[in-house]
Design a protein that fits this description.
It contains 3 helices and no strands. Helix 1 packs across helix 2, helix 1 runs antiparallel to helix 3 and helix 2 packs across helix 3. The chain has one domain. By secondary structure, the protein is mainly α.
């Protein structure tokens, strides 16, 4: 059960870190960042594969506004909640034996 709690903590932290990375990526898109800046390159490299998939599925913009980061943040939160609930249910099932 301790391993499941540790796994839940790690999943929660990874999701939170990725959440903040996506928010930072969205914020820097409002300005004209230097594409050769290592931080900008990191943010693009980490988020672009997922955002590009979302853009292919939802190919529309709302008046030039890219909503893919919002969709990603919502989906990330849903996945995080589902995984944490699943791990909690597994931990409860193991604790009963």
């Amino acid at each position: 059960m301790i391993i499941l709690n540790a796994l839940a903590t790690v999943i929660n932290m990874v999701c939170q870190i990725y959440f903040y990375i996506v928010v930072a990526r969205a914020l820097i898109s409002w300005v004209n960042p230097d594409p050769y800046n290592p931080i900008v390159r990191f943010l693009h490299n980490v988020t672009d594969p997922v955002l590009d998939r979302i853009r292919r599925i939802l190919p529309f913009n709302l008046g030039g506004i890219d909503i893919s980061p919002i969709v990603l943040l919502f989906g990330l939160e849903v996945v995080r909640q589902l995984l944490l609930q699943l791990l909690g249910m597994i931990a409860q099932g193991l604790g009963g034996y």
